[in-house]
Design goal:
mainly alpha
């Protein structure tokens, strides 16, 4: 119904139609509704840009503009976004970061560089994903010096989830593996497991802290698939080691049935380390 209503605005003068759409739609509209609005905005981008620039950059309507922009493909779109990246509203800045995480080709380099230093911790954490999407490994390396442990941990988790991690990202994970905070070190260890690196369990690390990083940062169905079927022995082992931290059933399966004895042995050892660390295990 709302998508149809947006389509009807196509029969109205663009200036009036886009101004009304921006006032009437909610920021949490269904993506199909936002895409319909974006279709009209894309046809008349200069008009949409005038409407957008007429809004207070800290307003809720600014968030709507950014969410509509996610569905727009136009060469002039990138120039519309930097003023919103400098908004006084963390919600607006966060919406810009989320847009650039999903559409890295329209990210503004200078604005993204500023957002990794944002005063709001949640925005900085989200900026890690946008930096990875844009392959700005230089920014991710800078974020290893962030004063907030949650931001540094997020950098590690984001790198672990990368579909294609380049060498600078692995270097950053090495640096995070030496972080003074255990939650960051655990996330860096798990990230490398998720990337298919079958590293031994680091001394002094709490297995339950590492398990939390698996829960927060890994694609569990993907890990289970890799642990069972990956052709690469190292990838199969790395996935099973990550699952062993959770006492996952697939890790137990690998420990019993993998055709490679060394994999069965290492996964059995990881399951034992994880079991011993469980609350009440020593009772």
């Amino acid at each position: 119904m709302r998508r149809t209503a947006v389509a009807l605005f196509g029969k109205v003068a663009p200036e009036r139609a886009l101004a009304r759409i921006v006032q009437l739609l909610r920021t949490d509209e269904d993506p199909a509704v936002l895409a319909a609005a974006a279709g009209l905005a894309e046809q008349h981008l200069p008009v949409f840009a005038r409407v957008a620039r007429g809004l207070p950059p800290e307003s809720e309507r600014a968030v709507l503009i950014i969410r509509i922009a996610r569905h727009i493909v136009h060469p002039e779109l990138p120039g519309l976004l930097p003023p919103f990246a400098g908004s006084s509203s963390p919600e607006v800045r966060g919406a810009v970061v989320d847009l650039w995480r999903n559409r890295p080709e329209i990210a503004d380099p200078a604005s993204l560089e500023a957002l990794i230093l944002d005063p709001d911790i949640a925005v900085r954490r989200a900026a890690a994903g946008a930096a990875l999407a844009a392959e700005r490994y230089d920014l991710l390396e800078r974020m290893t010096q962030d004063p907030d442990t949650g931001v540094r941990r997020q950098v590690a988790l984001v790198l672990g989830r990368a579909a294609r991690l380049l060498k600078p990202g692995l270097t950053t994970l090495d640096h995070l593996a030496a972080d003074p905070d255990m939650t960051v070190r655990a996330a860096a260890y798990v990230a490398r497991l998720v990337q298919g690196m079958a590293l031994p369990f680091p001394p002094g690390l709490d297995a339950q802290v590492a398990a939390e990083a698996v829960r927060d940062g890994a694609d569990l169905p993907g890990l289970r698939e890799d642990a069972r079927t990956a052709v690469s022995e190292e990838r199969r082992l790395a996935a099973a080691l990550a699952l062993a931290l959770l006492q996952d059933g697939v890790a137990h399966e690998v420990a019993r049935t993998d055709p490679v004895p060394s994999i069965r042995h290492r996964v059995s050892g990881a399951l034992e380390i994880s079991l011993v660390s469980l609350p009440g295990a020593s009772a």
